[in-house]
Design a protein that fits this description.
- The protein is an alpha+beta fold.
- Among the domains are: 15-73, no CATH class; 87-145, Orthogonal Bundle (DNA Binding (I), subunit A).
- Helix content is 22%, strand content 23%.
- The protein has 5 helices and 8 strands.
- The chain has helices at residues 31-39, 87-93, 131-137, 142-145, 159-170, and strands at 15-19, 25-30, 43-45, 53-58, 61-66, 68-71, 107-111, 126-130.
- The protein has a 4-stranded mixed sheet with strand order 2-1-6-3.
- The longest helix is centred in the C-terminal third of the chain and has 12 residues, at 159-170.
- Bound molecules: zinc ion.
- The site of zinc ion has 8 residues, from strand 8 and helix 3.
Length: 176
C-alpha cells in the first residue's frame, strides 16, 4: 500500500493541534498560525514519540513546527460563556437541520413546550424546526402532535470540550 498522498496541499494548509497549558487538546490551527504562536513565545513545541515536524524556512530563520504545540499561558477561552438562545446560535447547535424531519430549508425556531403553555425560552426548550413541521405542530407538544425530536435539546458545550471529545475519538491510541 502506498502512503496517503495529499496533492496540492501546501505547507501552510497543514494543521497543528494546540493543547492548553494543562495538556488538553483545544483546537486545530494552520501551520502559519502555529508558527506565529511559537515565534512570539505564546506556545512551545509538544513533541510526542511518533509526531512529525515541518520545517518552515525564511531568510535567517529555520523554524521547526511539530504536529502538537502547547500554550504557555492559561487559556483565555476559559471565560467562555454559554451563548444566548437566539436564532443564529440555535441553528448552529442543531447543525441547520429541522429537529423533527431533518429538512435544511425554511428553518424557524420552535418552543418544544409552547410558550402559551408556559414553555421557557431556554436551550432545553428551543429547537430548530422547518416551517412545515412548526406549522404542523402548532400550539401543541411533540407528543400531542405525534412528532419525535431527533435529539434532546441542551445548551451547547464549550468549543474546546467539543474539540477534545472529537480529538480523543480520532486519536484513541494517545490514551494508552
Ligand atoms: Zn421539519
Amino acid at each position: 500500500m502506498s502512503p496517503p498522498q495529499t496533492p496540492g496541499l501546501s505547507l501552510v494548509q497543514k494543521s497543528v493541534v494546540v493543547f492548553s497549558k494543562n495538556y488538553l487538546p483545544m483546537a486545530r490551527v494552520n501551520l502559519k498560525r502555529a508558527a506565529v504562536l511559537l515565534v512570539t513565545g505564546q506556545a512551545e513545541s509538544l513533541p510526542l514519540d511518533h509526531s512529525r515536524c515541518w520545517q518552515l524556512r525564511s531568510p535567517g530563520l529555520i523554524l521547526t513546527v511539530p504536529e502538537q504545540i502547547r500554550l504557555i499561558h492559561t487559556n483565555p477561552e476559559r471565560h467562555w460563556k454559554v451563548p444566548p438562545v437566539n436564532r443564529r446560535e440555535v441553528l448552529k447547535r442543531d447543525n441547520h437541520t429541522c429537529q423533527y424531519c431533518g429538512s435544511r430549508s425554511a428553518l424557524t425556531l420552535d418552543h418544544v413546550l409552547p410558550r402559551s403553555k408556559g414553555g421557557p425560552h431556554s436551550w432545553q426548550n428551543v429547537v430548530t424546526a422547518c416551517e412545515s413541521c412548526n406549522g404542523k405542530k402548532g400550539d401543541r407538544t411533540p407528543t400531542q402532535a405525534g412528532m419525535v425530536l431527533k435529539t434532546k435539546p441542551k445548551a451547547p458545550a464549550h468549543p474546546a470540550v467539543l474539540f477534545a471529545e472529537q480529538f480523543w475519538q480520532q486519536n484513541s491510541c494517545f490514551t494508552a
